[in-house]
């Protein structure tokens, strides 16, 4: 089991490294699996491989279903030619911040592992830290929430083309009408209306209710992204890293915690699909 599961993880990670020409955070799990081989903890390594692959499969399934749903809804909108009828969870300041964080995260975690090993000489603690630290939940924090927001908006005839638009709309504080009939502009420069040249396109005439709905959805998406990053991606993983450093969280429970954080991000994001903006009184 370790040879099959671990081999698959190693192959996927090395393939990504070769394609991107950068050392990805997946290398953390690879190092943990190599450590389990050298320490003779084959069963623990096999269990971790299984849980990591299971978590990856759940992530891929959930994100693909969400993306397909978003694409189907966007394709039904008359203005969807602007995006080719495809939803994108990429882009946005928060998403780029998460990418930059992930880039610096790897050397920091390797440094923590080195310090823990120097003071404890316990390779099991190091392997547990490596498994928990893989930031899957952080990477998914923005795209999962953005895609859920896009689905909800598309059901209401509102086209949000990408993550940057969702985040900018979520940061908007006011909307003012433009001289051109039926167009509006937010205080941060986004245009909204039925025109295909607008940043946020409505399939029907803009009304106060539809504008409020679009703003409320984007604000909610922004809130969920921050919840994903702070509560699940950071707090849960940092708690796991701390417990592992103290020798209180072995590698297998650490893998469970890692997957739990990722699943929490997905579930927290997916609830936005059915979220209903409350009418202001």
Automatic annotation (TrEMBL):
Gene Ontology molecular-function annotations: transmembrane transporter activity
Transmembrane segments: 23-43, 104-120, 126-151, 229-249, 255-273
Keywords, in A-Z order: Membrane, Transmembrane, Transmembrane helix
Record has Zinc as a keyword: no
GO cellular component: membrane
Family assignment from sequence similarity: Belongs to the cation transport ATPase (P-type) (TC 3.A.3) family. Type IB subfamily.
Protein name (database record): E1-E2 ATPase
Species the sequence originates in: Marvinbryantia formatexigens DSM 14469
